[in-house]
Amino acid sequence: MPYILISTQIRLETGPTMVGDEYSDPSIMNYLGARKSTMLGNNFSEYHVDEPPRLVLDKLEQIGFRVVSMTGVGQTLVWCLYKETSDSL
């Protein structure tokens, strides 16, 4: 999967960071040390890490991902990353 979205709440910019959904590549989620959880009332799962976004971005850069765009949506910061090659972990 060449694209990854990560996000965090502005007031929580030191973590946790949301790093994937239930369809994310398990090997990348394992590399990030992410845990999968489902919030009460949601019918979908998300992967989270305790680290701040900056550390997650550093880790993803080490395996070939690059930031394509970043935006703020309400109180949420969102980064979109892309990996050129189809290499997996």
TrEMBL record:
PANTHER family: GTP CYCLOHYDROLASE 1 FEEDBACK REGULATORY PROTEIN. GO terms for biological process: negative regulation of biosynthetic process. The lineage of its organism: Eukaryota, Metazoa, Chordata, Craniata, Vertebrata. One of its GO terms (molecular function) is GTP cyclohydrolase binding. The keyword Nucleus applies. InterPro entries: GFRP_sf, GTP_CycHdrlase_I_reg. GO terms for cellular component: cytosol; nuclear membrane. The gene is LOC113117827. It comes from the Eukaryota. Keywords: Cytoplasm, Membrane, Nucleus. Gene3D superfamilies: GTP cyclohydrolase I feedback regulatory protein GFRP. This is GTP cyclohydrolase 1 feedback regulatory protein. Pfam families: GFRP. Belongs to the GFRP family. It is found in: Cytoplasm, Cytosol; Nucleus membrane. Its main location: cytoplasm.
